[in-house]
Amino acid sequence: MALLTPTQMDALSELGNIGASHAATTLSQMLMGQIEMTVPLVEVVDLADIYKHVTDETSALVIFQMQGELEQGGYVIFIMPLSSAMRMTNTMLGMGDEERELNEMDESALNEVGNIMVSAFLDATAELLGVVMLPSPPVLVVDMAHAAIEQLLAEVAFDVNEVVFFHTKLTCDQYAINGDLVMLPEMNTLSRILELMDDLLKKHAC
Amino acid sequence: MADTNQGHSQRAIVIGIGEYHTGAEPMTSIGLGSCIGLIMHDKILGIGGMAHIMLPESGGKRDRLGKYADTAIDILLQELSKKGSSKNMLQAKMVGGAQMFANFSGNLSIGERNIEAVRAGLKQKGISLKGEDVGGTKGRTILYCPANNFTISIRRADGTCSEI
């Protein structure tokens, strides 16, 4: 895979910024609390180094496949450490016990939060690009984050040894909640996104 | 590969996805999901190797030898033989190959295919499989210290630990 040029990195990071801001806003509304968001990082990560970005800490992952006009487009994943996930559903469901097991209510709350955030993320990026991007129904995994990601990598990185890893951190100090929004685009999707971004930049340059 | 202390008493070399390592140093693979941690051990020399296999078949690709079951088995055998191991002294164990969630594509589980490919590869090379902890739906982190013995410590997300 050809490495991304600095301009392409900037463009992708700006795209991610818009998407993640929308996602952060929806999360803030759902929790009725302030959400801080880090500047999204776009990195080309070697498979062998994935563990430096996604650890084996037990986490709740809500996984979506990007669908719509970009078919089999890759994945968007919302990852929260288990303790954060618990505090988030407690906040939403009005409960206090953090030592309990995740139940069905927690699971559907997590799926719903993921759904709303990822829809906002994809809507905002797709609108900018002028395409339709929709999330698949969510899949919730509660396990080692690295272990869950491996199964996605086996599809996304079948032919390549590097993945474009788009990553932003969301934190809510009020409830001590933090999570990561990660996008793993498929190579074809990435090229398509870059083309669309180029067109967009050219249009603005005229 | 990087040195890191993963909460174990000794520092272990982290074998990332698609990587392999041979020698006497402690080795670890973090968060094995559908991937397989394949370990080969020479109890006479107290050395061994670990590969973090992601896919069942290389289809002739030579870019990442540890990434595919077939090339990973070959390279571990080669490297261990360079370090003085003879093939009939080597034994294998494997961990991983879970199906963490139902595939979006509905394809056959990649974890299952990895397990079968490693089993078939070892059989073909005449290496005996001395232990395994494979399949299921949960991730695993493994630690192997060749200098001690052929024990693989396995840790799961819920904190339970076991050994094979």
Automatic annotation (TrEMBL), chain A:
<keyword id="KW-0378">Hydrolase</keyword>
<dbReference type="InterPro" id="IPR050992">
    <property type="entry name" value="CheZ_family_phosphatases"/>
</dbReference>
<feature type="domain" description="CheC-like protein">
    <location>
        <begin position="105"/>
        <end position="141"/>
    </location>
</feature>
<dbReference type="GO" id="GO:0016787">
    <property type="term" value="F:hydrolase activity"/>
</dbReference>
<feature type="domain" description="CheC-like protein">
    <location>
        <begin position="8"/>
        <end position="42"/>
    </location>
</feature>
<dbReference type="InterPro" id="IPR007597">
    <property type="entry name" value="CheC"/>
</dbReference>
<dbReference type="InterPro" id="IPR028976">
    <property type="entry name" value="CheC-like_sf"/>
</dbReference>
<keyword id="KW-0145">Chemotaxis</keyword>
<dbReference type="Pfam" id="PF04509">
    <property type="entry name" value="CheC"/>
</dbReference>
<dbReference type="GO" id="GO:0006935">
    <property type="term" value="P:chemotaxis"/>
</dbReference>
<protein>
    <submittedName>
        <fullName>Chemotaxis protein CheC</fullName>
    </submittedName>
</protein>
UniProtKB/TrEMBL annotation, chain B:
<dbReference type="InterPro" id="IPR005659">
    <property type="entry name" value="Chemorcpt_Glu_NH3ase_CheD"/>
</dbReference>
<dbReference type="GO" id="GO:0006935">
    <property type="term" value="P:chemotaxis"/>
</dbReference>
<comment type="function">
    <text>Probably deamidates glutamine residues to glutamate on methyl-accepting chemotaxis receptors (MCPs), playing an important role in chemotaxis.</text>
</comment>
<comment type="similarity">
    <text>Belongs to the CheD family.</text>
</comment>
<keyword id="KW-0145">Chemotaxis</keyword>
<dbReference type="InterPro" id="IPR011324">
    <property type="entry name" value="Cytotoxic_necrot_fac-like_cat"/>
</dbReference>
<dbReference type="Pfam" id="PF03975">
    <property type="entry name" value="CheD"/>
</dbReference>
<dbReference type="InterPro" id="IPR038592">
    <property type="entry name" value="CheD-like_sf"/>
</dbReference>
<dbReference type="GO" id="GO:0050568">
    <property type="term" value="F:protein-glutamine glutaminase activity"/>
</dbReference>
<keyword id="KW-0378">Hydrolase</keyword>
<protein>
    <recommendedName>
        <fullName>Probable chemoreceptor glutamine deamidase CheD</fullName>
        <ecNumber>3.5.1.44</ecNumber>
    </recommendedName>
</protein>
